[in-house]
Amino acid sequence: MSSPNPRRQFLQSSAAGALGALIAQQWWASGAMGQSEPAAMTPLNRFPRMMQEYYVDRMREFHDKRVARLDAIETQADAEAYVKSCQTRVRECFGPRPEKTPLNPQITGVVQRDGYRIENLIFESRPGFLVTANLYIPTNVEGPRPAVVGTCGHSHNGKAEEAYQSFSQGLAKKGYVCLIYDPIGQGERLQYVDEHLKSHVGVGVREHLLAGNQQFLTGESFSMWRAWDGIRAFDYLLTRPEVDPSQIGVTGNSGGGTMTTLLAGVDQRWAMAAPSCYVTSFVRNLENELPTDTEQCPPNALALGLDHEDFLAALAPKPVIILAKEQDFFDVRGAEQAYERLKRLYTKLGKEENIGLFVGPTRHGFTLENREAMYGWFNRATGSDGDPAEPEMTIEDDKTLWCTPDGQVSELGSKTVQQFTRETAAKLAESRGEIGAKPLKKMVHDWLGDRKPLDDPHYRILRNRRDRKYPRKYVAAYVIETEPRVQALVYRIDNDWHFSRPPKDKRQAILYVSHHSSDAELRENELLGKAIAENPDTPVFTVDLRGMGESQPDTADVNSYLSAYGSDYMYAIHGVMFRDEYPRQRTFDLLTVLNWLQSFGHDGVHLIGNGWGAIPATFAAVLSPVVKQVTLQHALTSYTDLASAETYKWPLSSMVPGILQRFDLPDCYRFLESKQLKQIDPWGPNFDEPHDEPS
What we know:
Blueprint: H1 6-12, H2 18-29, H3 50-71, H4 76-94, E1 106-113, E2 116-126, E3 129-138, E4 145-151, H5 162-173, E5 177-181, H6 205-215, H7 222-238, E6 243-253, H8 255-266, E7 272-276, H9 282-287, H10 308-313, E8 320-325, H11 332-348, E9 355-360, H12 368-382, H13 417-432, H14 437-448, E10 459-461, E11 474-483, E12 486-494, E13 509-513, H15 518-524, H16 526-534, E14 540-544, H17 567-577, H18 582-599, E15 605-610, H19 614-623, E16 627-633, H20 639-644, H21 665-671, E17 678-680
Parallel strand pairs: 4-5, 4-6, 6-7, 7-8, 8-9, 13-14, 13-15, 15-16, 16-17
Antiparallel strand pairs: 1-2, 2-3, 3-5, 10-11, 11-12, 12-14
Helix pairs in contact: 1-2, 7-8, 18-19
């Protein structure tokens, strides 16, 4: 016979008053029906898919609006207007272009081969910023020739990678001039170089993230920095007598497919384009939990209604072929759908034949079948009757293609991206000066924008967990819905049993904003423990804001939360694309929680923010009148410090794009002196904390 259910007994009891409360206390304290003690206190995380589903909803809404706009195109005039709109929105997305300064080209070596030669070239895309490139020139044809700018994917050796040498040689042997250049952070253009001329942070993705995320603080875009190299490569080709200036195209694979796509959008001089292994859709990437580099996620792109195909639409009706792969991690379904929508647009423009799609049967890469599809497309676009089959290749050693003596531009004194960012941050700090309290509050309010914190949010009361070894005996857990599909998890700890809604209470409360996990930090954070011990009669609440603690994502990869390329980054970069960055969202959550506390009578709050949580705590404290006292532990010293650092450990989810064009954290800290601000152990760019290294 099964044992009686204590909960059913409680509910059926006719004496459900004081006796019921006593039974409930005894049941809870006994370990919820005799469950065994957990072997380890793994931090609670009851909403690990929250941010994934929240962003999937936002992305699908974005996608549906885009498709509806495209479906509304009925006439050629409609199609032309859409192309113009794409061009305008891409320009807004990328921001102001830098000045075109002298390229100062240098040919540092020449390699003669049968039917073509390779010139090793260095030019400056920006003053003092060196770009290494190989220029493949056919020697068996006369007169100006069609040309192609080749953009590389994430190869460690950049332009020297076999597939990229192959298409460059293939084009040259077919009569094209091909200029292929090293991307920032790859090949001969490492930005974080050690004494052995190796990257001390990681070639490719890691360099892109470290340099690119930091740039957002000053209002710069790594997408534009990467694309600008390609634009200046185009400009260099215009100086060469071997090149027909009316027939310059662009191609590349993976990260180079990204650049090909973005270059088509940002500069309409291209005569043709063939992006490989990139074009799908932002929503497909997110649904498939696929993080992509900083430059692959242009700022404000989603807010402006731009998807991958819109960058190609900006070049319409010029010839464009999407090169995809059946087994690629860039979802081929998205490539096919992008093609169908572009085909409809091109048809309205009277140029249906100028849009193409080729899907290779294999995995990610600029393999032979995709290269030959590119040759065939460019031959048709340029009026050539050449054979698209790839000729025999001669793969060169990397050193043969070096443009620098030792294989790195750093040895020639090239400036780095982070040097430019540091200089820009210093100029912005000088121009801002010290900001007064009133204008600062308006700036923070304007930054929050149209997000209006709820006064009376819906909330749930979770079933209580057994003893979590907190500083007080009992805990009640509240799930506060700050917006659809988003919850802030609030704990109320108390020495008295209380598992329903918070009681009405006019006393000042403590609200602790977690760094990573309220559950863990209630046991481990000495500052929080001390505040609780020294204020025995004070109501204490903690909060995990979205994407933290009890909603820490478990997506993208196993245990990837603290990885530079993991789940926290993936949602942070989508916030940047939506022009709705993570600190803004989390500040909104916190303001809603503060309003919720006020609805129960608390006429004052001592706000304690720790680490990552100190960022939204700072902004919320500036805006909320209910915050009377502020303590910040491990708060970032300043965004200027972060933008000026060679390396740093703060995540993109703690950064506010463009903030240094308006104000900085020290302006907020001065404002909060009126709220008894106390700073404890502030963190600079490279804080020293266990387990904070990206995996």
